[in-house]
Amino acid sequence: MEWGLASGVWNLWAPGVWEPPPAAPTELEIDIIEAVAATLAQTQVCGECAARLSRHVRIVPCASSAAATGTWCLLLATGCLGWRHHGNIAVVTPGPADLEFGPFRSR
Ligand SMILES: [Zn+2]
Questions:
Q1: Alpha-carbon torsion (92, 55, 42, 34), positive or negative
Q2: Span 9-30, pLDDT tens digits
């Protein structure tokens, strides 16, 4: 039975199997990041004014991580729902076994 998952997904299920992280996220990883980003933003507050964060999150590549670490890095950018609409950013990177989402920080 075909499950339609990318072959890299199975590394997550095989204990003890580890490959170096790829230089770019897979389509499945981007789908997961998009789904998790909105939920993650809704559970955190702005570091400047403590207002809730908007669930509308833009995903953009990090500027320098690929050259420095040989792997990918994405920024999750959103604004707070306070009247100043402070920008808040979180970093997503591939971890040893799963995606690693950093906390949103005001910029
Ligand atoms: Zn704010």
A1: negative
A2: 444 555 566 566 577 899 999 9
Q: What is the pLDDT of residues 25-39, one digit of tens each?
A: 999 999 999 999 999
Q: How far is the CA of 67 from the centre of ligand 1 (A)?
A: 32
pTM of the model: 0.73
Distance 27 CA to ligand 1 centre (A): 32
Nearest alpha carbon to residue 21 among 77, 90, 102, 100: 100
The amino acid occupying position 30 is I
Alpha-carbon dihedral of residues 69, 72, 75, 76, nearest 10 degrees? -140
